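hey m, so remember when u said the tokens were messed up on ur end? i reran from scratch. heres the input so u can diff it against urs
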Amino acid sequence: MRVVIAEDLALLRDGLIRLLGAYGFQVVAAVDNGTDLRAALLEHRPDVAVVDVRLPPTFTDEGLRAAIAARAEAPGLPVLVLSQHVEQLYARELLSDRRGGVGYLLKDRVSTVAEFVDAVRRVAAGGTAMDPEVVSQLLARNAGAPTRALTPREREVLGLMAEGRSNAAIAGRLFVTEKAVGKHINNIFTKLQLPPSEDDNRRVLAVLAYLNA
């Protein structure tokens, strides 16, 4: 699996290269600024990009903007943001094309290597991997969302889906059966007007509707 990394801190960048290499990933490019990131993404078209938000020269949002620009030219390009900050505006823009293959993790909240590697693989496969704190901040300004039709339990289930949890994991977290979780998810699909489709992953589309409403 081919990966492009964007991280301005040399030690962390080298650590990511070594870590991903040890788990069978091939790092095809590792850059430290937004301009080089966009070029690398369009040149290599990796299976997934691991991107810091704040890169030189201004250390504001170059990384995320470069990833969004590259994704516009290469639709569906999987991007996993790994940052210390939640940039709400551009995070929403990253989610706006509803194509899946997106994630947003906070560096100081990634507790295990296995958790991080699993998130990289999930995003590369077209899924989502969202830190609960990111989800919380994005939803703070989401009062008018179409998800208001959902019950509190359905919103709770959808929030756990946004984190990338399986039905079994959601059932364990909520102390209910997998059958009950499946029923909630079917209700969510119905209320968000996501009919069965062979082309679209309804689970991902539901999560994106939830986060980008």
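this time it looks ok to me. The first strand starts at residue 2 and ends at 6. if urs says something different then somethings off w ur setup not the seq
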